[in-house]
Amino acid sequence: MTTIRFIREGIDIQCKPGENLRDLVLKEQLQLYGLKGILGNCGGVGQCSTCFVSVEGGTKNSLSPLTRVEEEKLKNRPDNWRLACQTLINSSAVILTKPQSPPSNLKDLKESTKNKKLPR
After folding, report:
1. Which of 24, 80, 83, 117 is at 20 to 30 A from 43, Cα to Cα?
2. Helix (H) or strand (E) run with residue 56 in it
3. Is 40 a domain residue?
4. Structural domain tally of the chain?
C-alpha cells in the first residue's frame, strides 16, 4: 500500500500502486472539481482539463509520467500540475486538489505537511 496526502483536506489515504488518482479522489468523496468541472467534466478522459491537482511532495517517480494529453492541456500551467484523470499512483505523494483556487492558508498547510513524514 502507498499513501497519498491531500493537504487541502488534511487527510492521508492509502491506496494500491497503479490506482488512478481521479478514481481515488472520487471514491473517497473529496472535492476535485471547481464549478466548471462540476458542471461539465468529461468523466475522466482528459478532454475537459478540470481535474487539476498540484503535486506538492513525493519523489520524481511517485506518479506516472505525463501523458500526451497532459503535455498538451498543461502547456501554460505550472510544472507541478497534473490532470488527476491521467495520473497513476506509483508511490506516496502529497497532492493539492483544485490548485487553481488555493486556500488562503496554503502556506501554513504546506508547512504542516512538511513536518509530517509520509508513510511508505
Report:
1. 80
2. strand 52-58
3. yes
4. 1
